[in-house]
Amino acid sequence: MEVYYTTVKNYNLLDRRNKLLDLTFSNLGDNKRILVKPNILGPYPPDKHVTTHPAFLDWILKYLIEVKGIEEGNIVVGESSGFSTEKAYEVSRIKEVCEKYGISFLPFERDKSVKIKLLNTTLAIPKTVIDSDLIINLPKLKTHVLMRYTGAVKNLYGCIPGGLKIKLHKYFPRAYDFAHLLVELYRYLSKGREIISVMDGIWGMDGNGPSNGKPVNAQIVIASRDALALDIFATYYIGYNPMDVLTNRILTERIENWEDKLNIFEVDGIVRRRDLMEVPRMNFRKPDTYYLTSILPPFIIRLISSIIIEKPRIDRVRCKRCGVCEKICPVGAISLENLEIDRKKCINCYCCHEMCRFNAIKLRRFL
Ligand code: SF4
Ligand code: SF4
């Protein structure tokens, strides 16, 4: 479980950090079909720091083509945004970078798909994902109102096409169930191919991420051929106990003495081995949904969940009536006619909060 990290103040300096990629991409093998999976959550410009920065993708593609000698035709960049992947691809300026290198971009909802069963639920996985020999996973370092953190394991959920991604919240409404789904998907994808993750943490997001938090210049790039190891390191770096994040907790259950297997290297001019405890940390502001649920024991939470759980409501002043939240809500709880959310239907998945580009969904404990 090797993790490499380097500090980088801004995107212009990435070219000086190829050593990190040399270590991460050593012995790459003969991969014919490489899928690059950035995080393009929605149509956000790069300076919002919601999506993987185009300069970060540029750095990775340039390295693969110029240093590793991989042909452009063997690489596809793919994603399924919460809505309008095409628009997200353009606004995030990922399109510009793909065009610069002559690499095709695939909105997964346009691909053929293969049906698989995970946790007794049928999922459609794009054929391009199934056929890939290698996934290069480029998550963004952010907090997340439902899952507390989104990183390497969670970013792979964007391999599920279009509306199905949101609809699945209906079948896995609790954070714990949803974490199991993320873990099983990660395990499934890891079986047939290698997954190499390089995280864009130069600018991340804290607070009510993954889209309505505050951008933070976290000045770090983290890379690993083990998505779990990367997530353990990243969650520690931003001030969590890594076991507070459910995907980390579930995945480490099957690894005996995982702490001893974690090998961390700081990569600068030279490469230094570090203990996790030696790594300087940041204190990311946690999502509003985090505090009570992390202090109280689970049985108390179950008893008083209707009181302590943050609930979404529409801010009538901020709302632009774009219709996105109404369209994506997996249980049809939102009515734009009166700007109301039906509390009886709502499962608190926070997809509306995540997808509202105008920060018009507010989370409140008491309504
Ligand atoms: S709350 Fe946000 S997503 Fe929903 S209609 Fe208003 S602006 Fe659009
Ligand atoms: S109203 Fe929002 S939080 Fe509630 S179920 Fe719909 S999308 Fe999820």
What does this structure look like?
- The chain has 367 residues and is an alpha/beta fold.
- The chain has two domains: 2-278, LarA, N-terminal domain (Rossmann fold, 3-Layer(aba) Sandwich), CATH 3.40.50.11440; 291-364, Alpha-Beta Plaits (2-Layer Sandwich), CATH 3.30.70.20.
- It is built from 16 helices and 18 strands.
- The strands form four sheets. Strands 1, 2, 3, 4, 7, 8, 9, 10, 11, 12, 13 and 14 form a twelve-stranded mixed beta sheet that branches.
- A hairpin with a 7-residue loop joins strand 10 and strand 11 (214-216).
- Helix 2 (54-67) runs parallel beside helix 4 (94-101).
- The longest helix is centred in the middle third of the chain and has 18 residues, at 175-192.
- The protein is globular.
- It binds iron/sulfur cluster (SF4) (2 copies).
- One iron/sulfur cluster binds next to helix 16.
- GO terms for molecular function: 4 iron, 4 sulfur cluster binding; metal ion binding; oxidoreductase activity.
- Residues 310-339, 340-366 form the 4Fe-4S ferredoxin-type domain.
